[in-house]
Amino acid sequence: MSGCAVVLVVWLVAAAAGPRAYDAVQSVIASWIGQVVLFGGTFAFFLHLCGGIRHLVWDTVHGFELRSIYASGWAVVGASVILTAAAWTASLFMTK
User: What pTM was estimated for this model as a whole?
Assistant: First the structure.
């Protein structure tokens, strides 16, 4: 996620620097490797978000049974996959 934050800052600086810099950064981001990095960053963001929600539930002293720990762990992974797919699907509809 830190690497993706750096990429976001580079993208914003390029946008402020002008069209040539923005086009150069945008072409890298639009490449297949850039898309893989963005996809991984999106998944990492949602995994971190869902894991944080899981920890908030734990702060209420709930879900500490071993079965609940495993179930909530898989729920975090599943929710991250679903949210990543939903975000990328929504982005496809926005670009058309």
Answer: 0.88
